[in-house]
Amino acid sequence: MNDTTNVEKEETQNQEKQNPLGTEKIGKLIKQFAIPCIISLLVSSLYNIVDQIFIGQGVGYLGNAATNIVFPFTVVTMAFALMIGDGASAYLSLSLGKNDKESANKGVSNGIVVSALLGIIFLGIGLVFKEGLLKLFGVTEASYEHAKTYMTYIVLGMPFFVFTTAVNSIIRADGSPQYAMKTMLTGAILNMILDPIAIFVFHLGVKGAAIATIIGQMVSGVMSFWYIKKFKSVTITKESMKLEWKTLKKICSLGISSFITQIAITIVLIVINQTLTKYGAESKYGSDIPLSALGIVMKVNQIVNSIVIGLAAGAQPIIGFNFGAKKYDRVLKTYGFAVKVGLGITALGTLIFQLCPQLIINLFGQEDELYNEFAQLCFRIFIALVTLNSFQITSGIFFQAIGNPVKAAILSLSRQIGFLVPAMLILPKFFGIEGLLYAGPTADSLAFILAIILVTIEVRKIKGMKKEVN
């Protein structure tokens, strides 16, 4: 019995020497993993932002309204990609923490295969059900042609988009966050170079913006595929790539929080588009101004959220490894660090949104006074309390990292589905189009309270586990 215990201790000590996640300073690890992750997510957000900027300047707000209408489809594909990618990433970190190399190999391999299959599936769905999807997403008569053109081309890049999004998460967990960053950055730079050429030189409008995005996604996808044979902590074999239901079920359960978050965003986008169309038509703004303006504001806010998500995702492998290794002090320290930095970043973002919204609005084209008025309202009301939302985002990824998908799912659902959608359906009945804008801070406040309760319970539980280990 003693020999067995000694062997286990020796294996643990050897593992710690091999993997700095269990020994290196928390601040240094966060910097190493989170910064590349943040840059990767910012780059991903820039795909949409850059399109909006150049389309706004070259086509006008109807072009931006069209891309906002198509955006829910992109979010749905991202939901599945992140479920597989983040799930496989968490699976990898937990397996390595337990020194289970075989499970790590199987989880990563299955994640890669499924992400490739999902990309092909969404390509087919986008092409076959295009008309019905546009109607579901709230297309208007004025923006229909632009939306149809944009979606026809953008779906062609789905296999590369899904694969890159999923595999990038795994690459970060493998200890190569810099490479993951490079794959996204390369594609984004290409997109930013090709966008103005396609729109202003070749006069291709929204079609050109979509083609530029696809080319960037293709390059990122090839770079992600190239990394497969360079994995540090796992070995990809034909045997490990055979799909196994037990492994896929675990991957999906670990990534369900990311999936629910994105699906919830999709539902919110659909409700927003439908509500904006209905109540916008009854207001002085009309339907298309609200569709364009709020869509832009949400994407700008996504830049701030990307930093918070990237910070939390960068902390995820650190939390997951140390939780698996029963180093609960490091788990709590890492989580606390991510929360504090996230709150500071979103507070700064909120300050900018409140003080100078028009400067941001002007990036997307010079529009009339009515458009600017509504866009400013979106900045100052709808995303007024995003600082509170950062705590919920970080806490959701924390639960995901420690293998608690139920609480992660509850947090993901609460803000978007539990609070935001009902508020968007109820408040406009009493306050018109502005009621929809007040739904944002209402949901952020309620979700923050729920997150505080769940985190307090979990932290007490972890502290109890820590005492048992000691």
Counting structural domains, the number is 1
- Mind describing the biggest β-sheet? none
Uncertain parts: none
Number of helices: 17
Separation, N- and C-terminal Cα atoms: 20 Å
List SSEs in N-to-C order.
HHHHHHHHHHHHHHHHH
Spatial extent as radius of gyration: 22 Å
Q: Describe it for me?
A:
The protein is mainly α. It has one domain. The chain is 85% helix and 0% strand. The chain is built from 17 helices and no strands. Helix 2 runs parallel beside helix 8 and helix 14 packs parallel to helix 17. It is globular.
Give descriptors for this structure.
0% strand, 85% helix, mainly alpha
What does this entry show, briefly?
With 470 residues, the protein is an all-alpha fold. The chain contains 17 helices and no strands.
Summarize the helices and strands and which ones pair or pack.
Elements: H1 2-18, H2 26-58, H3 61-97, H4 101-128, H5 130-136, H6 144-154, H7 158-173, H8 177-201, H9 205-227, H10 245-281, H11 288-324, H12 328-355, H13 357-361, H14 369-382, H15 386-401, H16 405-431, H17 433-469
Helix pairs in contact: 2-3, 2-8, 2-9, 2-11, 3-4, 3-6, 3-7, 3-10, 3-11, 4-7, 6-9, 7-8, 7-9, 8-9, 10-11, 10-15, 10-16, 11-12, 11-14, 11-15, 12-15, 14-17, 15-16, 15-17, 16-17
